[in-house]
Amino acid sequence: MTILDKYVLSQTMRRLMIALSIVLLTLILERVLRLFEFAAANNAAFGLVLQMAANLLPHYLGLALPAAFFISILLLMAQLGDNNELDVILGSGASVRRMARTVIVAGVILSILSVLLLGYLQPYSRYGYRAIRHAATHAVWTEAISAQTFFAPAKGLTILANEIDLDDRGLSGVFVHQISDDGQEMTITAANGQVTTSPDTGETKIVLENVVQIIEQPGQAPYTLYLGKLTFTPDFPFEPTPFRERGNDQRELTLGELWKRNTQPQPGADPKDAIEQTKLNAEVNGRLVRSISVATMPFLAVPMGIAAKRRRRGPAVATAAILLLLYHYSLEVGEGLVGLGVVSPLVGLWVPFGLFSLFCINMFWQIDQRLRPNKFEQFFDRVDSVFQAMKKRIWPKRQPSE
């Protein structure tokens, strides 16, 4: 690796980290706010919010990586042009295509990493997110209950505790009121309590100490019992119901699992199974197309970056964002059509990828040693001229008074 390669690689990676952080923060911030609303509505612990946000990172990283890589190359090329470093590099005998070799290799490496990210890490993180969300919505009652607040975990059952120790599952100042289906009412007060769960059966028991128990049968006078210790078995489980196994959704399957299910023959499949097969087919091809697309980003970012020097940087970034969004949504629409069985993966996903790749490679191939104005530079000049004209029309300069 030459000095030029090291310089271009270091500058690209530095900008990539910055751009990736900004794009990730932008994408995940709104979702985290919604997670806090979800946690407040379900009275879930703050730690669950952090765990769900951590499991969302691979998903948003897969979305942010192509855009951040593209922007980092564009800004690097624009900076090299502004500082006349590009002229020095060309004067030394190196061509733009030779200089871009480093970012092209980096794109191939990031494409391979994207396959691992989209194909293997995301399915596990998506399943983990859903499992944590299930645990939050089916939280154990000691995590959902608040001290000095009436809590009704089941029909006819009300529990109140003055103090709650969630770590040790300890209670103090306990009040329990239960109405059974036959009309019997039971009221219990206790100084202390301890929640225990059998590791074998999962049965929940609350061991109460210094108990006063009042039982009232329909048509009978109530009677009171004073007990040193009482084991109360509520009619609801302490632990949440276990979450389903991974693989119920095609987005939770790895690429290997998707490929196996997609190619495995299913004799006698009904129409429902056929629809599921198209979804598997769309998921496999969609992940592969998005992963390989990362390798095509340098071929478009380099010519756009060279054309974006000086005052053209704003139009260049806006144009890049529009192009990437159009490409992203074309893949979304194509994957949806493939999942519905309307079109084949070749038409819905690989044709848009091929057209986008040909466009990128064509723009890159038009770069020459003399850096004559390319089509992007002319387009950015027109956009900047329109913007400046609109700016003068909206905010005209004040004429000096005589």
Explain what the structure shows:
It is a single chain. This protein has 402 residues and is an alpha+beta fold. The protein folds into 2 domains: 3-137 and 273-394, no CATH class; 146-232, no CATH class. It has helices spanning 3-42, 46-82, 85-91, 96-99, 101-137, 141-144, 255-263, 271-307, 313-340, 345-365, 375-394; strands at residues 151-154, 157-165, 170-179, 185-197, 204-216, 223-232. The protein has a 6-stranded antiparallel sheet with strand order 1-2-3-4-5-6, with no helix packed on it. A hairpin with a 2-residue loop joins strand 1 and strand 2 (157-165). Helix 2 runs antiparallel to helix 5 (101-137).
Whole-number count of domains: 2
Structural class: alpha+beta
Query: Stretches where pLDDT falls below 50 for ≥5 residues?
Result: none
Query: From the alpha-carbon coordinates, what is the Rg to the nearest angstrom?
Result: 31 Å
Q: What is the strand arrangement across the widest sheet?
A: 1-2-3-4-5-6
The total count of strands amounts to: 6
The helix tally amounts to 11
Mean pLDDT: 81
What is the global morphology?
elongated
Straight-line N-to-C gap: 65 Å
Largest sheet: 6 strands, antiparallel
Please trace the helix and strand order, writing H or E for each element: HHHHHHEEEEEEHHHHH
What is the percentage of strand-forming residues? Answer: 5-15%
Summarize the structure.
Helix content is 61%, strand content 15%. The chain has helices at 3-42, 46-82, 85-91, 96-99, 101-137, 141-144, 255-263, 271-307, 313-340, 345-365, 375-394, and strands at residues 151-154, 157-165, 170-179, 185-197, 204-216, 223-232.
